[in-house]
Design goal:
Amidase signature (AS) enzymes, alpha/beta, about 450 residues
C-alpha cells in the first residue's frame, strides 16, 4: 500500500532537515543483499558507497543541490561503472572483461543528478530471460518472499527496491525486463519509449558504456515503489518533460478473449483496475489485438539475431537455453531478417493507429502473479512474452502499476502504455491515479 508521503518526497524532506547522505548510505548498506539468496547485487562496496556520500555532501555544502541529491539508486550490471567489471550476469564476462575505465552515460547521469549509486545488480544472464534465474550468480529470490523468484531480467533491480537498499533501480527492457519483475515484486516500473532511450532516440547516449541485448527493442527505465515519484526521476535522468495528466483519458483494454490463459487473481486485478480507472474519469473500450497473434514470430528472430551479434564467438559459454537461441540467431541471414523487419514496420504502423482512438492501452503484465523458486519455469518465457512483446515491438513507453495499491493480489500488476514519446503524460497520469487513491481512499474499489 502507498503511504501518505511518497518515498522520494519523504527522503527529500529528511535530507533538507537533518539527514546526511552518509546516513542514507549507511541505512542502505544494512539492507543490501537481504534476500534469502543474498544476491541482489553482483557488485557492492560499502566503503565506495560511503565515499560517494561524503563527496556528495562536500561538493554541495554551499551549492544548490541537484534534483536527486542523496537518493540511493541501484544500477543493473549491464552498465559500466568506473573501476568495476560489467559482468552482464555471466561469469564468463566477469572473468574476461576488464574493469571499466569510465562511467557509462547512465552512471554519469545518476551522479550528475546527485544519486548515490548503491551498486550493480543481479540480472538474468545477458538480460536474455524473464525469470531472474541465473546458474552463475544464483536465482534471484524476492526479499519479501523467499519462495518466489523476482522475475527478470532486471531481477536484482527489483530486489534492491523491495529490500529497501535503493529507492529506485535502473533496469533495461527489451521484451519485458522491467515490467515483469516490477509486477511480480509488487512495484512500479517505467520503461522509456524506444524513441527516447535508444541509440537512435532523443537521448542518443543512453547506451554509451552499456551492453546491449537487441538494439531494435532495447530501452532503459527504472523500478520504484511509488508511481508518484516516477516523473521526477524520469525528468532528472532522461529529461522527460513534465506534463499534465489527462482528466478523462480514453483507454483501450485488451478483450477478455486475449486473457484466456490468465490466472484468476490476475483477471481479478485487471477487472479491479478497469473499475478504478472508470471511477477516475477514464472511458474504457476494448481494442482489436488480432495483429498481436504473431508478434513473437517477429520479435524472437530479430532479438536472437541481434543478440548473437553482441556475443559472437562466445555462445557456448552460456547456459544451454541461451546458447541455443544465440546459435539460432547467428544462423539467420539478412535475407531471412528482411521480411521480419518489414512486418515489424507494419506492426508499428498498426499500433500507432490505435492511438488515434485511445490515449493509453492497458493489459496485465503477465498471466501469472508469481514464479515459484525451484520449480521448472521453462515455459514461463513464452507464456509471459505474449503479454509484453506487443508493446516492445511498438517501442511504447509503459508504466507498470502494482495491484496491491487497489487491494488486489500481490504480483498481479498491469501495464499502461502510451504512444511513442508521450512518456510525460503517461507518468503524470500514473501519478494522478496514486494521488487519488491516497487522497480519496473511499474511491478505491
Amino acid at each position: 500500500m502507498l503511504e501518505r508521503i511518497s518515498p522520494l518526497t519523504e527522503l527529500r524532506h529528511a535530507l533538507a532537515a537533518h539527514t546526511t547522505p552518509a546516513e542514507v548510505a549507511t541505512a542502505a548498506t544494512l539492507k543490501v543483499n537481504s534476500n534469502a539468496s543474498r544476491n541482489t547485487y553482483i557488485h557492492f562496496n560499502q566503503q565506495e558507497l560511503l565515499q560517494q556520500a561524503q563527496s556528495l555532501a562536500h561538493t554541495y555544502a554551499n551549492a544548490a543541490r541537484p534534483p536527486l541529491y542523496g537518493v540511493p539508486v541501484s544500477l543493473k550490471d549491464c552498465f559500466d561503472l568506473a573501476d568495476t567489471i560489467t559482468t552482464f550476469g555471466s561469469l564468463f564476462y566477469a572473468d574476461h572483461n576488464l574493469p571499466a575505465t569510465h562511467d557509462s552515460a547512465m552512471a554519469h547521469s545518476l551522479r550528475a543528478s546527485g544519486c548515490l549509486i548503491t551498486g550493480k545488480t543481479h540480472l538474468h544472464p545477458l538480460a536474455y530471460g524473464i525469470t531472474g534465474q541465473n546458474p552463475d550468480y544464483g536465482d534471484c529470490l524476492q526479499p519479501r518472499d523467499s519462495s518466489l523468484l523476482t522475475g527478470g531480467s532486471s531481477s536484482g533491480a527489483a530486489a534492491s527496491v523491495q529490500e529497501g537498499s535503493a529507492l529506485a533501480a535502473i533496469g533495461t527492457d527489451t521484451g519485458g525486463s522491467i515490467r515483469v519483475p516490477a509486477a511480480l515484486c509488487g512495484l512500479t516500473g517505467y520503461r522509456a519509449s524506444h524513441a527516447l532511450a535508444s541509440t537512435t532516440g532523443q537521448w542518443p547516449n543512453a547506451w554509451t558504456g552499456a551492453a546491449h541485448l537487441a538494439p531494435s527493442f532495447d530501452t532503459v527505465g527504472f523500478l520504484l515503489r511509488d508511481p508518484r515519484d516516477a516523473a521526477a526521476i524520469a525528468n532528472a535522468l532522461f529529461s522527460v518533460p513534465s506534463a499534465t495528466a489527462p482528466s478523462a483519458p480514453r483507454i483501450g483494454c485488451v478483450p477478455l478473449s486475449f486473457l484466456t490463459d490468465c490466472e484468476s487473481d490476475v483477471l481479478a486485478a485487471f477487472d479491479a483496475w478497469r473499475r478504478q480507472l472508470t471511477r477516475a474519469g477514464a472511458s474504457l473500450a476494448e481494442f482489436d489485438t488480432t495483429s498481436w497473434n504473431h508478434s513473437i514470430e517477429i520479435f524472437a528472430p530479430i532479438q536472437a539475431h541481434e543478440a548473437a551479434a553482441q556475443h559472437r564467438g562466445h555462445y557456448d559459454q552460456f547456459e544451454p537455453t541461451i546458447a541455443q537461441r544465440l546459435h539460432w540467431g547467428a544462423s539467420l541471414s539478412d535475407s531471412d531478417l528482411a521480411p521480419l523487419r518489414q512486418r515489424l514496420a507494419d506492426f508499428r504502423s498498426r499500433m500507432a493507429s490505435a492511438f488515434d482512438k485511445f490515449d493509453f492501452l492497458m493489459l496485465p503484465c503477465a498471466p501469472v502473479s508469481r514464479l515459484v523458486a525451484n520449480q521448472d519455469q521453462s515455459s514461463a518465457r513464452q507464456t509471459i512474452l505474449r503479454y509484453t512483446i506487443p508493446f516492445s515491438l511498438a517501442g511504447l513507453p509503459v508504466v507498470t502499476l502494482p495491484a496491491e495499491i487497489i487491494g488486489a493480489a500481490f504480483g498481479a500488476g498491469i501495464q499502461l502504455a502510451a504512444s511513442p514519446g508521450n512518456d510525460g503524460a503517461l507518468l503524470a497520469y500514473a501519478a494522478s491515479l496514486a494521488h487519488m487513491l491516497i487522497d480519496h481512499p473511499s474511491s478505491r474499489d
